[in-house]
Amino acid sequence: MRWDPVRTLREALWIGGGQWAGKSTVAGLLAGRHGLTHYHYDYHDARGHQDRRLAAMVRRGEPAVDEDWEAYWIGPTPREQADRIIAGFAERFVWVQDDLRALVTPRPVLAEGWGLRPELVLPVAGSTGQMVVLVPTEEFRQERIARTPRAGAVGHALSDPALAQRNRVERDRLVAADAVAQARWLGVRVISVDGTRDAEAMADLVADHFAAFLP
Q1: Which superkingdom does the taxonomy of this entry point to (predicted)?
Q2: C-alpha distances in angstroms, 97 versus 3, 65, 71, 105, 170?
Q3: Burial (CB count <10 Å: 0-12, 13-18, 19+), residue 125
Q4: What is the per-residue pLDDT across 71-104, written as a single tens digit (0 to 9) for each?
Q5: R_g (Cα) of the chain, nearest Å
Q6: Cβ-Cβ contacts under 8 Å for 97 (sequence gap 6 or more)
């Protein structure tokens, strides 16, 4: 088939929202059911996008050094951390679009990740119906944090790991709340994840939302 970078973005389906809402699990199930091309935002963001971030710092004349995790997690307030990461999503979304434009696939792309924000996605998507925001309830989020090892602690050697984890948990709550506010403002559907539905049932719910766009 012919490469069409505009069509790839226009026809993509998007799952955004909060951490620990099951976005990757749902996307994986839908990709398997419908033969979709699954774009895993977190994987690209932690690898290729990190290289681009360092290159951008060099172009701006900033020192291209690894993050000072002590200053990142301990110093700023959770609100400051949330504002920083939300602002950074815009730069990183440019790189997401580059990744997706490079794909040649006869079936829709299903992109998922917390950096896929409604205010960034809608200008390139065909309609609001092509996006959904999944956000865990507070009770379910705390349950995931307690039961998922990588959610239960910040993975860096820090002077006060307990404070860092509290900051991280509150930061993630603020980022998710902002995604919900943006989604509701722009008319994007928000689905609360409370654990009463298993992964297959959540995939059914999201598939129903995307039904008009699925093969």
Answers
A1: Bacteria
A2: 15, 25, 30, 15, 29
A3: buried
A4: 889 989 999 999 999 999 999 999 999 999 998 8
A5: 18
A6: 9, 124
Q: Give the three-class secondary structure for 87.
A: helix
The total of structural domains in the chain comes to 1
> Which tokens belong to 16?
């955004």
Helical residues (DSSP H) of 23-160, grouped into ranges = 23-34, 41-45, 48-59, 69-73, 78-101, 118-121, 138-147
Position 150: which residue type?
Answer: R
Which domain range does residue 105 map to?
5-213
Q: What's the distance, CA 156 to chain centroid?
A: 21
Tokens of 146: 């307690």
Which SS3 state, helix, strand or coil, does residue 75 take? coil
Query: Rounded distance, CA 181 to CA 183, Å?
Result: 5
Is residue 143 classed exposed, middle or buried when 0-12, 13-18 and 19+ CB atoms within 10 A define those classes? Answer: middle
User: Which residue in the block uniquely carries the two structure tokens 């505009």?
Assistant: 6
CATH number of 17's domain: 3.40.50.300
CA of 23: how far to CAs of 16, 28, 173, in Å? Answer: 7, 9, 16
Burial 6-42 (b: 16+ CB within 10 A, else e): eebbebbbbbbbbbbbbbbebbbbbbeebebbebbbe
